[in-house]
Design brief:
Shape: globular
Structural class: alpha/beta
CATH class: Alpha Beta
Oligomer: single chain
Largest sheet: 7 strands, mixed
Radius of gyration: 19 Å
CATH topology: Rossmann fold
Number of domains: 1
Helix content: 40-55%
Number of helices: 9
Bound molecules: S-adenosylmethionine
Distance between the termini: 34 Å
CATH architecture: 3-Layer(aba) Sandwich
Strand order of the largest sheet: 3-2-1-4-5-7-6
Length: about 260
């Protein structure tokens, strides 16, 4: 049984730090390029998190447009509301991706990055995203497939056990493999699918890789027991990465997949 992440104040701080690193800044540029938001459009950001993408989207639709950021977690909404406070076209609301409280055909754009992988009833959530879009509206869903990880280490068996435990932080750690078919079944026409890599070919202290390493260590320390992973083994896994970094032998890569579709 999976034990999903708690999006509390600590998680909000860690996410905000990780999501201002170059890999994730690049992801947001790619998402904006794919969606091409225009002034005056109405946009829904489902799982708005710290509000970094929402801020860019609100700026692009301008005061003639509208940006609604929705999230299930109060701690994340607090961060997003602070970030968007000066933008009259933006508002944040509490809600569930699988049960959107908006009328049919409310938005020109609905976007959701790194959220649906946490949602247990994924087909309901994709159906809801479809329902709230106007006919011809654009959708973009982006998620990670943790099978795509390439991560150098000294002990592959230990790495495999740590990553197996980490898989449990999501409802579906391999969502991208089925997401296109799910979107088509919901009535979308999928126009474009892009890989968005989180890549550190060498150690960079300020990087997605460095941030996610800490998140995985914290998660595995707290939840490893169910996988027979002792805390000392988790620490050994982490220390191995630091040693490889010191020797100039660090390598990390994982792929996210962005699906652009039209209703
Ligand atoms: C990994 S963060 C991504 C945040 C943001 N979309 C981004 O890419 O910067 C996941 C976010 O989804 C939210 N979330 C998870 N499950 C949700 C659900 N069922 N409904 C709404 N939000 C959800 C979490 O609270 C968290 O803010």
């Amino acid at each position: 049984m999976s034990q999903m992440l708690d999006f509390d104040d600590n998680a909000a701080r860690a996410l905000e730090a990780m999501y201002t690193t170059p890999d994730v800044v690049g992801q947001r540029a790619k998402v904006i390029e794919m969606l091409a938001p225009a002034p005056g459009e109405h946009v829904l950001d489902i799982g708005v998190g710290p509000g970094l993408l929402a801020h860019d989207l609100a700026r692009l639709v301008g005061e003639a447009g509208r940006l609604v950021g929705l999230d299930a977690a109060a701690a994340m909404l607090k961060v997003a509301r602070t970030r968007l406070a000066a933008m009259p076209q933006a508002e944040c609301v509490e809600g569930d991706a699988a049960d959107l409280r908006f009328p049919d055909a409310s938005f020109d754009i609905a976007v959701s990055t790194q959220v649906h992988e946490y949602v247990a009833d994924i087909d309901k959530a994709v159906g809801e995203l479809h329902r709230v879009l106007k006919p011809g509206g654009r959708a973009l869903i982006l998620d990670t497939d943790w099978r795509s990880v390439v991560w150098h280490c000294s002990d592959q068996a230990l790495m495999d056990r740590v990553l197996k435990c980490w898989d449990d932080h999501l409802a579906d750690p391999h969502l991208p493999a089925t997401l296109g078919a799910r979107m088509r079944r919901a009535g979308f026409r999928v126009l474009r699918v892009e890989i968005v890599p989180m890549l550190s070919p060498q150690w960079q202290p300020v990087s997605y890789a460095a941030g996610i390493m800490k998140s995985i260590r914290g998660y595995a320390m707290a939840n490893g027991e169910r996988h027979g992973l002792a805390q000392a083994e988790v620490q050994a896994w982490y220390d191995d990465q630091l040693r490889l970094a010191e020797r100039g032998e660090f390598f990390f890569s994982v792929n996210r997949y962005a699906f652009l579709a039209v209703r």
